[in-house]
Design goal:
The complex is a heterodimer of chains A (636) and B (191). Chain A is α/β, with parallel strands linked by helices and 636 residues long. Helices cover 41% and strands 14% of the residues of chain A. Chain B is built from 9 helices and 4 strands; from the N terminus they run H-H-H-H-E-H-H-E-E-E-H-H-H. In chain B, helix 1 packs parallel to helix 3 and helix 6 runs parallel beside helix 7. Classes of the chains: A alpha/beta (636), B alpha+beta (191). The structure holds flavin mononucleotide and FE2/S2 (inorganic) cluster. The site of FE2/S2 (inorganic) cluster (FES) has 12 residues of chain B, from helix 5.
């Protein structure tokens, strides 16, 4: 095999792709974000609206589906790229706005900046995303293409240097790929931060011929969506990373383990695999070399514990997803008993960049021991929710207040929950912790795979820790006693506290149990399940105490500890909205015309509070649930 | 849940077809269950028995898998499927209250189907649009910011739809189960 074969093949693929993409970019394009987040907000309908309006005006404009650009708070979103103007991103689209944009910008020539979020390219008329605080902190690496390329056409990826890393790698020995990844100190992004290069090397050292590469896209954190967004927005990046890994370790076959609940991700990846195969980038003799490797999707059936490496392999083998004690590690004995490399979606996504630009370049981003970036799905009570990517070492404060633009409705910050059910809740005082694997671990949370929820004064920390524990308790596979019974017992205690039951000893017991479960469980599900409880006990003890000592839920969340009350001075006799909103007919009109709630019948559904017109705002939640002595009644 | 007329035959032919396109190896068991569920909308006991027979795996093991994994459902879906998101962001803003409102209106618990098979209710974790929390997915349409009051509105709209399509809805509930959401439907075949 001549050495430059793969290079020549790549050049040809690139030229072809570039020609096709350039031709498209010579005319106006509308890129509609149709990742799951966009679709949920109605992006498919927006796409149809654009297509219809464009057809009616008989314009020569392409409407294409792209992934998520990360600004999910403003969904549905679209980017309009028209030659002669900077590409501009518009948010909060509806049919009226689509009509205007088509008429004024596409048919006319007015970019309607008053509706724009930001421009995408530097220009002297309108600011770009980089000009906002968020842009200053963000550093897009593996999200670089997300939301800008048509995921359903491989040429877009190739025209942006896609598969170049593969062609470069194929010219060298497999060990060169390994050395580069090792030198980059790429740490696994699935939560634990284990160096990928060392894992790969262990697999090579096993000395066996049959090996497997598996991508963990199980994403079990119930409040996170970064892995899904990446697969939906730039699937080839992950695929190329996996092929590079396979080349480095000498694997012939690989799998993407994707949740069946992620139909768009499954569909886009399947399409991407087919197109890569058709171009000779996957399958037999990749780029005409002797290296053959193929990939397949395995659809995970939705069990949180299956995100754990050994459980995932068990489930692929047709068993219940129960974790095994290690060693043996997967690297020596994994899928079908053969050496296996398992990495997270994002871990693989970094690999093409590292091969293309080198380990030294990678290490310049982030911190010394945590090179590169961190990707989060930022949700909860912040203004700018969405998918964000910042260099490692950015502080939580910067992430919440600059990237996230602070809290919604000027509410007071209470905590960030980071790392999902295995992570912890950190208070204001911990906001200056830099985001990296080690610092977060020290603070009691974990990096996790990137779920980050911001909580405000209206969130009850006891209820939050109860929520996560209920989740892990339900997902415990039941194999080991500590996890199965320990979490159950903890959940019972927490349920009691949310009803105001317990005393100082209860909290002691809860803490002891949490530590026992952490120390005694077999796998990391059990070992980390107590984290939300332990961190809230440490940082928010006063809230626990308010529940058990005063029967009061400070945030007014725990329903056994609140009651709904209509404040007579505020209630308007002319309005009947609350009565109609009540599902149990608990609200009645008193003789004096004011409304009152029959506490016996009230199911605390929150309907009336939401229904009461803001100009009256007469309904309040009282905690502890004690009715005030009614002054009017005595006055009557 | 009682099987309806003709359902038994439908189940058997579906399982036969899926099995004939598979290796019948243990590794293929989860994909088989996924495909059968994609077609029938759920995994009736009869289907699991037939799968066990066909793959030579003990029936309890098949039951074991079907109950271990959240994806599998043992009840037939209703004509109208309501999924309430209880992911972190939705839970924080009262997703559980929304779920409870649906339970009250449908008179069933989460995970169940009404006996006339009109409605089924499920909880799901993060639909991916946390900004719109609390989120409910009604017959594959995502709706955001669902207040408990809106629950009544949704139920009224669904009841309206029932009225129009009349009784033929309930006679073959097993059929219109294909949910767009179900990936095995879209891509499972291509494998
Ligand atoms: C209960 C549990 C759930 C997990 N869920 C995931 C997950 O959803 N995605 C993931 O990539 N890793 C998950 N992990 C971590 C994996 O076990 C494994 O460490 C990781 O996939 C390795 O990839 P990495 O080295 O690239 O991080 C989970 C671990 C545990 C204990
Ligand atoms: S938590 Fe409900 S959509 Fe994310």
């Amino acid at each position: 095999m001549s050495e430059s074969d793969s290079q020549a093949i790549y050049e040809k693929l690139y030229e072809e792709a570039k020609k096709k993409i350039d031709a498209k970019e010579n005319k106006a394009q509308v890129l509609v974000g149709t990742a799951t987040c966009g679709v949920s907000a109605g992006a498919l309908k927006i796409k149809e609206d654009f297509e219809r309006e464009i057809k009616e005006k008989d314009l020569d404009v392409d409407v294409v589906e792209v992934g998520c650009i990360g600004h999910c708070y403003a969904e549905p979103l679209a980017v309009i790229a028209k030659p002669g103007h900077p590409a501009v991103c518009y948010g909060y689209l509806d049919d009226g706005l689509v009509h205007r944009l088509v008429e004024d910008f596409l048919a006319g020539d007015d970019p309607s900046y008053e509706y724009a979020l930001a421009a995408l390219e530097r220009n002297d008329v309108f600011p770009t995303f980089e000009d906002f605080p968020r842009g200053q902190y963000e550093h897009k690496l593996i999200l670089e293409n997300c939301g800008f390329i048509d995921v359903r056409d491989i040429n877009n990826y190739i025209a942006r240097d896609g598969y170049k890393a593969l062609s470069k790698a194929l010219e060298k020995e497999p060990s060169a790929v390994l050395e580069e990844v090792k030198a980059a100190n790429l740490r696994g992004r699935g939560g634990a931060g284990f160096p990928a290069g060392i894992k790969w090397e262990a697999c090579i050292k096993s000395g066996q011929d049959e090996k497997y590469v598996i991508c963990n896209a199980d994403e079990g954190d119930p409040g996170a969506f970064m892995d899904r967004s990446i697969l939906e927005s730039d699937p080839h990046l992950v695929i190329e990373g996996m092929i590079l890994c396979a080349y480095a370790i000498g694997a012939q076959k690989g799998y993407l383990y994707i949740r069946a609940e992620y139909p768009r991700a499954v569909g886009h990846v399947q399409e991407a695999l087919d197109q890569a195969r058709a171009k000779g980038l996957l399958g037999e003799s990749i780029m005409d070399t002797e290296f053959s490797f193929d990939l397949e999707i395995f659809q995970g059936s939705g069990a949180f514990v299956c995100g754990e490496a050994t459980a995932l392999v068990n489930s692929m083998e047709g068993n219940m997803g129960m974790p095994e004690s290690r060693p043996p590690r997967l690297a020596s004995q994994g899928f079908r008993g053969k050496p296996t490399v398992l990495n997270n979606v994002k871990t693989f996504a970094y690999v093409p960049y590292i091969i293309n630009r080198g380990a030294d370049w990678f290490k310049e981003i982030g911190t010394k021991d945590n090179p590169g970036t961190a990707v989060f799905s930022l949700v909860g009570k912040v203004n700018n929710t969405g998918l964000v990517e910042v260099p490692m070492g950015t502080t939580l404060r910067e992430l919440v207040f600059d990237v996230g633009d602070g809290l919604r409705d000027n509410k007071e910050f209470k905590a960030v929950q980071i790392g999902g059910p295995s992570g912890g809740c950190l208070p204001e005082s911990a906001l200056d912790v830099p985001i990296d694997f080690d610092s977060l671990h020290e603070a009691g949370a974990i990096m996790g795979s990137g779920g980050l929820v911001v909580l405000d004064e209206n969130d009850c920390m006891v209820s939050v820790s109860r929520y996560f524990l209920e989740f892990t308790q339900h997902e415990s596979c039941g194999k080991c006693t500590f996890c199965r019974l320990g979490t159950k017992h903890m959940l019972d205690i927490l349920n009691g506290i949310t009803r105001g039951k317990g005393d100082a000893e209860t909290l002691e017991l809860l803490k002891e149990l949490a530590e026992d479960v952490r120390d005694g469980s077999l796998c990391n599900l059990g070992k980390t399940a107590p984290n939300p409880v332990l961190t809230t006990l440490e940082y928010f003890m006063d809230e626990y105490k308010a529940h058990i000592e005063e029967g009061r839920c400070p945030a007014g969340v725990c329903r056994e500890l609140i009651l709904y009350y209509i404040e007579p001075p505020k209630c308007s006799k002319l309005c009947n909205v609350c009565v109609g909103s009540c599902p149990t007919e608990a609200i009645f009109t008193r003789d004096d015309g004011l409304k009152e709630i029959d506490q016996e019948k009230c199911v605390k559904c929150d309907n009336c509070l939401k229904a009461c017109p803001p100009e009256y705002n007469a309904i309040v939640k009282l905690s502890p649930p004690v009715l005030p002595p009614e002054k009017e009644k005595t006055a009557k | 849940m009682q099987l309806m007329e003709g359902e038994k035959e439908q189940i058997i032919s579906c399982v036969d077809e899926v099995l004939s396109n598979s290796t019948k190896e243990k590794e293929d068991l989860i994909p088989i269950l996924q495909k059968v569920q994609a077609r029938l909308g759920y995994l009736p006991a009869l289907a699991m028995e037939k799968i066990a027979e066909g793959t030579d795996v003990p029936t309890v093991d098949v039951y074991g898998l079907a109950t271990f994994y959240n994806q599998f459902r043992l009840n037939p879906p209703g004509d109208h499927e309501v999924k309430v998101c209880l992911g972190t962001a939705c839970y924080m803003v009262g997703g559980d209250i929304t779920l409870e409102s649906f339970e009250r209106r449908m008179e069933i618990n989460e995970g169940e189907t009404t006996s006339d098979r009109r409605y089924s209710l499920e909880r799901v974790a993060c639909v991916g649009c946390c900004t719109m929390a609390p989120v409910v997915v009604v017959d594959d349409e995502v709706e955001g910011k669902v207040t408990p009051t809106r629950v009544d509105g949704i139920m009224l709209e669904l009841e309206g739809k029932n009225g129009k399509s009349g009784d033929n809805n309930s006679s073959n509930a097993g059929q219109n189960t294909g949910s767009k959401d179900d990936p095995t439907k879209e891509v499972g075949e291509q494998k």
